[in-house]
Task: inverse folding
């Protein structure tokens, strides 16, 4: 009997996601008559320690996964569940994404104090977000809004909505739904107004590339359609060199044939004064991501990204 050690960050969302994945894998292992058990190991990452500065200034999202990847490579843990949107576009040598499970809601949502939706927010309302992608698109739609920085895990952001005088905050719907906090959502932001982050709502399960036994189990857990759409989005991210926190959005859906992928990509100025948006369809997700990245680059995406990176 093998014990699979699952590394996780300590945030409520990370623990919840990890436990939900373990429950699904246990069920699957039972069905396959595999003799495995799972054990959770909590890991404190740099990103968790530095919650008070702009993340992009200290190294970006990679800070949340670096320690976890080291623990995977050293054998201290065997797998880790990540929010796909927190996974860097490139994984280190020796590690792979073993499964992309069925995607949750990819949209952003508004949690407002007075229960009003985006259009109902008063002129000049104070809206909390921690992403250039959201501020860029929200300001393009409602230039009067005052977008202010709010950081922390989703539970602390929900608290700050009350304590720091925000009229509303923006969060990914997926995190709230996984936590069972769907009732906090006031309204969903259509992807036409706010294109989600690459991989938003999806999970990634990182493990060692030579762990054949675990990879076989994970392979059964993968949702092929989610994997295809997320692959297109991540290819776009890689092509735009968008490793750290940058104003990039992407959302891919499967065509009616169940095979072709339709990808929309966006790069925006953080102040919302310019949004570049391009779409294309194709059957090779990686090639499609590169294609939409090239279309955005032709419109001047690199210049916007350079400026946003500071
Ligand atoms: N950047 C933090 C983060 N990473 C993953 C989620 C939850 C949503 C998801 O799984 O995409 C969140 C919170 C948020 O952005 O609201």
Result:
């Amino acid at each position: 009997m093998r014990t699979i050690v699952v590394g996780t960050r300590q945030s409520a969302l990370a623990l919840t996601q990890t436990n939900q994945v373990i429950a699904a894998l246990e069920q699957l292992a039972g069905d396959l008559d595999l003799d495995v058990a799972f054990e959770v190991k909590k890991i404190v990452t740099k990103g968790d320690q530095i919650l008070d500065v702009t993340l992009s200034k200290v190294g970006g999202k990679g800070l949340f996964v670096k320690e976890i990847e080291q623990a995977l490579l050293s054998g201290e843990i065997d797998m880790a569940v990540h929010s796909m949107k927190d996974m860097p576009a490139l994984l280190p040598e020796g590690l792979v994404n073993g499964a992309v499970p069925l995607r949750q809601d990819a949209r952003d949502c508004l949690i407002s104090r007075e229960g009003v939706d985006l259009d109902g927010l008063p002129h000049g309302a104070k809206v909390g977000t921690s992403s250039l992608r959201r501020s860029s698109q929200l300001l393009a739609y409602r230039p009067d809004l005052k977008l202010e920085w709010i950081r922390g895990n989703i539970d602390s952001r929900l608290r700050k909505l009350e304590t720091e005088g925000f009229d509303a905050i923006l969060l990914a719907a997926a995190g709230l739904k996984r936590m069972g906090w769907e009732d906090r959502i006031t309204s969903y932001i259509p992807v036409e107004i706010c294109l989600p982050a690459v991989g938003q709502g999806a999970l990634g399960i990182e493990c060692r590339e030579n762990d054949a036994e675990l990879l076989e189990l994970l392979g059964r857990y993968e949702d092929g359609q989610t994997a295809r759409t997320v692959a297109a989005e991540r290819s776009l991210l890689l092509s735009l060199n968008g490793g750290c926190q940058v104003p990039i959005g992407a959302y891919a859906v499967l065509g009616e044939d169940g095979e072709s992928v339709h990808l929309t990509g966006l790069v925006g100025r953080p102040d919302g004064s310019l949004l570049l948006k391009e779409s294309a369809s194709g059957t090779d997700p990686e090639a499609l991501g590169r294609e939409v990245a090239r279309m955005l680059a032709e419109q001047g995406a690199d210049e916007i990204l350079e400026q946003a990176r500071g």
Remarks:
- Residues 167 and 228 are 37 Å apart (CA to CA).
- The pocket of PBG is lined by residues 83, 85-86, 154, 171-172, 174-175, 200-201 (CB under 6 Å).
- The chain has a mean pLDDT of 93.
- The longest strand covers residues 261-268.
